[in-house]
Structures are given as structure tokens and as C-alpha cells.
Amino acid sequence: MLPMTSTDPILVIGGTGKTGRRVAARLAARGVPVRIGSRTGTPPFDWEDPTTWAPALRGTRAAYISFFPDLAVPGAPAAIAELASTALAAGTRRLVLLSGRGEEEAERAEQELIASGADWTIVRCSWFSQNFSEDHFHDHVMAGELALPVGDVREPFIDADDIADAAVAALLEHGHEGELYELTGPRLLTFADAVAAIGRASGRDLTFVSVSMDDYAASMVEQQVPDEYVQLLTYLFTEVLDGRNAHLADGVRRALGREPRDFTEFARDAAAAGAWASDDAEVVR
Length: 285
Ligand SMILES: NC(=O)c1ccc[n+]([C@@H]2O[C@H](COP(=O)([O-])OP(=O)(O)OC[C@H]3O[C@@H](n4cnc5c(N)ncnc54)[C@H](OP(=O)(O)O)[C@@H]3O)[C@@H](O)[C@H]2O)c1
What we know:
Blueprint: E1 10-13, H1 20-29, E2 34-37, H2 53-57, E3 62-65, H3 76-90, E4 94-100, H4 104-115, E5 119-125, H5 138-143, E6 145-148, E7 154-155, H6 160-172, E8 179-183, E9 189-190, H7 191-202, E10 207-210, H8 213-222, H9 227-240, H10 251-256, H11 263-272
Parallel strand pairs: 1-2, 1-3, 3-4, 4-5, 5-8, 6-10
Antiparallel strand pairs: 7-9
The structure holds NADP nicotinamide-adenine-dinucleotide phosphate.
């Protein structure tokens, strides 16, 4: 096996997603060669086809690992164990895993990585602020109403820019090996608070409605949301959002030596970039 050098690329698995594309952009801005690990990468990387993993890892010096669809699903720990073993066999020792707070399967996946013998770092995150601007909830914000099966549970939403900064520090700098950084925003907000902040930043008239889990699941089935996704959201809303994560953590400060970005800054910047602009306006999320 050739020793890895600083000209070897870093594999960014999920490099077209919310966190991965930010990690890839930061690495590229520093002149670090990047290989995108996704079904559209070259070579392609597919979580459902382990034969694609070694070719994607070959010749890389480190990897950022964002699992799809979610580290909370059954099978995620086994996939992370196999990926870590494939990475070590390819000579890629530095592995940075994106994880979720308060999720049993995610914690088992973390343990698999820790036991693998890799030089690991884990960024264990709260709910992403960008779920409202780039993912699940964006369409609902655009429709003016977000109806979710949550009440007044509070969540310290984390900005994906902070996650990417921490992941890049772990990929490029010494001193982050063997560290588990719990990344949260600086403030606990209810989902109603978050929607109100987006309403103020975007100038949109937005309503948050708390619905029952049964009604929410029924509406997802009606919208033909795939069954696995309905199950995942049901798990996240009924088990993970039960208050267990309603506390702040100091991971951003530990990893980066600064405070995390507040939700209002996220909402202001996303609005300014056109995340919630009307459909006929140019959108730069
Ligand atoms: N959202 C949250 O609030 C939250 C909180 C904590 C932790 N997390 C964790 O974040 C992770 C998701 O990260 P993210 O939000 O940055 O990503 P994302 O925005 O959900 O993007 C998904 C990425 O996965 C790729 N992908 C989809 N299917 C794939 C497949 N079969 N094989 C390989 N790649 C595939 C996509 O690229 P292509 O389509 O090009 O393949 C894309 O790059 C999950 O593991 C979740 O547990 C999320």
C-alpha cells in the first residue's frame, strides 16, 4: 500500500447532500482534491452496492461519511462497520462520521466506527436548520403551513455550515482523532419558534400546526411518501423528539473554538440567498 500524501483526495460520501456539499466546497476552497462519494460520483458510490465502496475509497487519504438515508435505520451499524473495514483495507485511516443525537442505531454505528481501528472523529448532530430550507420541510414552508407531530418540545437546531466547518477541521487538522463532538446550535427552539423565525426572515405568512402522529402518517401515505421514509419520520418524531435532546452541547466550541451560529442568522442568510423566494424567482439555496 502506498503511503497517503497531501495530494491524495478526500472522499466526501454524501458530497451532494446538505452537509457533504458544504464539506466538499470548503475542501476545494483550500485547494484540497475532493472525490464526491454518491451515486452520481466518479466512480459512483452506492450504499446499496458494497462493491462500489473500495473503488471510491482507493487512493484517498481520508473520508467524510454521511450515511443515507439515516443512521437511525436498522442496518446502518453493519454498513458503517463494513465501510470502515473497506476503508482501512484501502489504506484510508482518517474517517469522520456524521451522526445523530439520541438515536440508538446511530450510537451503535458510532461504536462500530470506534471499534474499527480507524483514526475516527464523530460529529453527532442535532436537527439541521437546513431541513427547513433544503430538505423535508422546504415545500411546506413554501405552501405557508408546516404541520408536524410535535408540540412544544425544544430542539437546538444546528446550522449545516457549522457541521461542515467541524468536519473539515477534523479531516485536515491534527488533534481531532478520537473525539466525539456533539454539535448543537446555541439555543433551544420549538418548531413553532423556528417557523416564526423563518416567517420573519422571509416575509412569508407562515403557520405552524401541531398534529397527531396518526394524522401525519396518513397524510404522508396520501402524498405517496415511500414506506421506509414514513417509518423513519415516525421514529424520529415519536422517539427522538421526546425531549431527550432538549439540551445544548459544546461540540462546536470544542471543535472550532467559537460559538455556533444562531437560528436567526441561518434564517436571515437563507432568506437572503433566496431559499424561500417565490418559485418564479431565482433560488440559490
Ligand atoms: N437532517 C437532520 O436533521 C439530521 C440530523 C442528524 C444527523 N443526520 C444524518 O445526516 C445524514 C444525511 O446527511 P445530509 O443531510 O448531509 O445528506 P442529504 O442532504 O440527505 O443528502 C443525501 C446524500 O446521499 C446521497 N445518496 C442518496 N442515496 C444514496 C445511495 N443509495 N448511495 C450513496 N449515496 C446516496 C445523495 O447523493 P446522490 O443522490 O448523488 O446519490 C446525497 O449526497 C444521515 O445519515 C442522517 O442520519 C441528519
